[in-house]
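Ligand-bound model needed. zinc ion.
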Amino acid sequence: MSNHARLRTGDQTLVREINLSVIMRRLLEHTSLSRASLAEVTGLNKSTVSSLVQELIDMSFVHETGLSFTGVGRPSMMLGLNPRAGYIVSCELGVDFISVLCANFGGEVVWRVKENTAGIQGRDEIMHHVLTLLRQAVDIGATRCPGSGGLLGVAVGVPGLIEQATGTLLFAPNLQWRDVPLRDIVSAEFGGVPVFVDNEANMAALGETLFGAAKGYNEVLYISAGVGVGGAVVRNGQLVRGTTGFASEFGHMTIDPDGALCNCGNRGCWETLVSQSAVIRLTRQAISAGRSSVLEALAGGDLNNLSIPLIVQAAVQQDAVALSVLEAAGRNLGIGIASLINAFNPDLVVLGGILSLAGQWLLPTVRAEVGWRALRWNAEATEILLAQHGFDACAMGGVATLLQAIVLEPGRYHPQNYL
Ligand SMILES: [Zn+2]
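Prediction:
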């Protein structure tokens, strides 16, 4: 056979893979479409669409969802992504918690758990907990998602820099972990299935784009404010990663050159002003300076027990200290977000992380600050919303990461090809 003929066969296989992905993407965007409307929105001819759809039905990624009687003429059979195609297990490895969930191929969560790890010392011990919870989720998925293609993959989000080619965590400032081969560690436990490791804000941003507040937006800026401050940019449904894959580390922008020392080694990073610990530090300072607050009682008399949920509880009771601390945090958040809006001109900013629990107090200040500081033409084009999945945003993002990988390359990620 000539090279020419082999190339042509290769091209045809590639074109078919691309077209399978085009069908899957349309079904992900529109939830439900008929074969005729798929032909219309993709520009592919009807017989090609029918054959591609049949292949995806044979792979279990797509199923027929029932007849639609809405249009004129004969009712048409509708198609959608098949929730029973398999299940995905996803984990957020936070600085002081591990959050794990199991979802079916439709993104519906069938099980979730959150464990506090503040008392657990050492990387190996924490990784042991991560693997134990992931194994538990995999076993539960096998019983709660029966009749499916089984485990489609595992995703892990971490607050640090991930080398995409190897899935290695290069540096997590707030965990003080360096060079941890996370993907290899998780793959060794669940041999064969795809394992995705990414920065927590990247995952959360993708999750909000596929399943949450950012669905339907094209230029999304995601800010996650928790122990640290993470960020991500999603453009037309794809993460913007930068040259070496470490873009959007907004938490480490210098805001105050002579400010507090940050865990990254720099001084006055944005996250030293707006993270969970910054908010708690300000609260403690106010109370220690003699301001009275219900937080003393809520914390059981020990200010070491202060937490964002307690500060939110105090804000609900109109506590002056809690309200003023949240206003200061909102102002500092708004100062950074205004600059980012000027830099990226997004149509949406999504605020997630544990600080988003205080969203009803933070958002008005953030919006006011953006209104004053961002260029009017930029600010007017930008909505600012809270993450829809709140504390689950990263774990849901892990589900979105796998779902997007499968939708882009259904052949490559079909269970038959890696089992
Ligand atoms: Zn820093």
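DSSP finds 14 helices and 16 strands in the chain.
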